[in-house]
Structures are given as C-alpha cells and as structure tokens.
C-alpha cells in the first residue's frame, strides 16, 4: 500500500494535534448537510530546496472567510490570524516536498435541521504531499451533461462543501467517458468551468475566460493569470464563452490550485489547437511555475515563504 500523503500535524478545535486525532462525530451538521467551506492552497518547494513558498496565502484566506460568510459562520479568526495559523502549521510539519494545505470551516454542531443560523463553527487545517493532479502536458476534456450549480441555488463563487456534489457528478461522468476532466456549462448553456478548475481559451491572440458572475468559483489562479497576461501584453477578456468557441479555440487550458495549469488537448474528442501546449499557455505556464519555485521574482510578492525548520527533540 502506498504511504499516506498526510502530514503529521493538523490544526483542530483550536490546537495542533496529530492528524489522526482530528476527528468529528458522524452527526456533525457539516457531514450531514455539506455545510462547510474549504480552501485549497499549495506550498511549493523553492528552487533553494529550503523554503516552502505558499502561493497567494492572503487571497486564499480572504476567499475562505468570504465562503464562511456565505455560510453565516462567525469565527475568532481574521485574514491575518488565519494566515498565521497556516504558516505555523507548515513550520510545524516542516514538509520536504510540495504540499497542499486544506483549511476547512464547518458547522460543527450535532443538530438535525438544515439551517445556517445558531450553529457552532470550527476551523480545521490539515496538509498533504501533492504533486501534479492533472497531466500538465495535455488533458482530454468533455462537456458534462451536469449543469453547473447556479448562484441562486448554491453560490459557487465560494468553496462550499455541499456544492462539490455537482463537481463529483461531472468528474465521474468524465472519467467514465475515458477523459480526464469535465467542462460544465451554466443553465443558459455558456461555458462555466471544470469540475475543480477554471477555464481559459485563446482565440485570435485574445485570452478569454468566464466572468465571475458566470457561476464559477472566484479562482485565485485565474485572477493571477489574468494579471500575468498583462505582463506579456496579451489582451484579456472576461466574457460569456459559447460551447462552440471551445471547438474553435487556438488554445485552451484549465487552471486552479490543484490542476495548476493544464493545457487541454481535446474537447469532446476534437483536437484543440496545433501545439501542446500552445504559445500563450506556455508563456503563462512558464511564468507561473518560475514564480512559485522562486526562480522569477516579478510576482515574488505573491509568495509567503516558510523556511523549513529542523524539528526540535521536544516537538
Ligand atoms: N473552480 C472550482 C470548482 C474549484 O474547485 C477550483 C479549485 N479551488 C477552481 C475553480 C480554481 O480555483 P483556485 O485557482 O482558487 O484554486
């Protein structure tokens, strides 16, 4: 059996505990009704081999607290103290590889009614070793028959646990069709996003992505790439994208914390573009990876560096 990717220490109910001890009751409201919100944050091992670079930590903390706000979850954390708790946990785990950090705010009461008010809330954080999640050299995608959950049903701009049923249905369907990732359309038939990633296309030199009012998660990688595109003078558009535009795109790629930047090779069996990855995808991808590995300082301010620490015997 493969070794567990989980790192040893978790933050749970206000303290650092062994991951195995971070346990909740089966009756927990968040378990029963999906009333949780989470973040997915990557820490990259710097080219120096000594530092973990956490990518856009303040932005992830801000989005998590916004997701918690949608759930009416009040917690004794603000953006700064949440970020510090995450940094402290990274230091404590002293990972020797790239990591994925999963903070989770959830309705912790054991209570029967599906509601948001009047329940207790908790924060838990755990971490695991994580390499590439989708093949970054070209993935196969297919349009899902599952429609992206609209904002007026479950707000998808936040990372709300329950809404990931929608993602899971689409991901299963995609995998059972023999492709890597699903593309979900919105209720009007426009392109929304992947099951766990945002989507960009390039048409005639213009980089286009669905606007944040298009039932997508307000992706932090997406926002970062829109800024990086300016660096290269690539024109960008945030606009509705039709399904047929996917087939005509010169380039298409998924982006997100997990998938990073995953060029799309085919959609519904149709080949996208000429090269894999296409030139704009490659430009952005190179800058992204050089940034997170600390090799290109232009966006160095997007990283929170945490020095690896040799654990003291008393730890
Ligand atoms: N959409 C969905 C549904 C996601 O789960 C993710 C991953 N968090 C993304 C988009 C990409 O968001 P980010 O770049 O902030 O990770």
The strand count comes to: 17
List the total number of helices: 7
Return the CATH topology of the largest domain: D-amino Acid Aminotransferase, Chain A, domain 2
The end-to-end span amounts to 28 Å
Return residue spans where pLDDT drops below 50 for at least 5 consecutive residues: none
Description:
- The strands form 2 sheets. Strands 8, 9, 10, 11, 12, 13, 14, 15 and 16 form a 9-stranded mixed beta sheet that branches. Strands 1, 2, 3, 4, 5, 6, 7 and 17 form an 8-stranded antiparallel beta sheet that branches.
- The chain is an alpha+beta fold.
- It contains 7 helices and 17 strands.
- The protein folds into 2 domains: 9-129, Aminotransferase class 4, branched-chain amino acid transferase, N-terminal domain (D-amino Acid Aminotransferase, Chain A, domain 1), CATH 3.30.470.10; 139-277, D-amino Acid Aminotransferase, Chain A, domain 2.
- Helix content is 25%, strand content 28%.
- β9 (181-185) and β10 form a beta hairpin.
- The protein has helices at 29-33, 57-70, 79-93, 164-176, 220-231, 243-248, 279-292, and strands at residues 9-12, 15-18, 36-38, 41-45, 51-55, 99-107, 121-129, 139-143, 181-185, 191-194, 198-203, 206-209, 236-238, 251-256, 260-267, 270-271, 303-307.
- The chain is globular.
- The model has no long low-confidence stretch (mean pLDDT 95).
- The chain binds 4'-deoxy-4'-aminopyridoxal-5'-phosphate (PMP).
- Residues 40, 167, 193, 196-198, 217, 219-222, 256-258 line the site of 4'-deoxy-4'-aminopyridoxal-5'-phosphate.
């Amino acid at each position: 059996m493969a070794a567990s990717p989980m790192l040893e220490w978790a933050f749970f109910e206000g303290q650092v505990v062994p991951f195995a001890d971070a346990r909740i009751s089966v009756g927990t409201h968040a378990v029963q009704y999906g009333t949780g919100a989470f973040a997915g944050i990557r820490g990259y091992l710097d080219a120096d081999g000594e530092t973990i670079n956490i990518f856009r930590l303040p932005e992830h903390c801000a989005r998590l607290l916004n997701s918690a706000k949608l759930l009416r979850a009040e917690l004794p954390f603000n953006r700064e103290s949440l970020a510090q708790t995450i940094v402290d946990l990274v230091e404590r785990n002293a990972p020797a590889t790239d990591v994925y950090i999963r903070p989770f705010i959830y309705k912790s009461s054991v209570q029967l009614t599906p509601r948001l008010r009047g329940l207790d809330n908790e924060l838990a954080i755990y971490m695991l070793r994580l390499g590439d999640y989708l093949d970054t050299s070209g993935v196969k995608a297919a349009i899902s028959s599952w429609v992206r959950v609209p904002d007026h049903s479950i707000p998808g701009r936040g990372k709300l646990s329950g809404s990931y049923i929608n993602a899971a249905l689409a991901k299963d369907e995609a995998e059972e069709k023999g492709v890597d990732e699903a593309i979900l359309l919105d209720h009007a038939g426009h392109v929304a996003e992947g099951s766990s990633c945002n989507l960009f296309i390039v048409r005639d030199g213009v980089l286009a992505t669905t606007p944040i009012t298009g039932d997508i998660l307000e992706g932090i990688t997406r926002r970062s790439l829109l800024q990086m595109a300016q660096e290269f003078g690539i024109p960008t558009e945030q606009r509705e994208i039709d399904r047929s535009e996917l087939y005509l795109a010169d380039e298409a790629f998924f982006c997100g914390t997990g998938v990073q930047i995953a060029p799309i090779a085919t959609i519904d069996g149709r080949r996208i573009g000429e090269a894999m990855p296409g030139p704009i995808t490659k430009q952005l991808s190179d800058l992204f990876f050089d940034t997170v590995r600390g090799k290109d300082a232009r966006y160095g301010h997007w990283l929170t560096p945490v020095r690896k620490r040799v654990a003291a015997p008393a730890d």
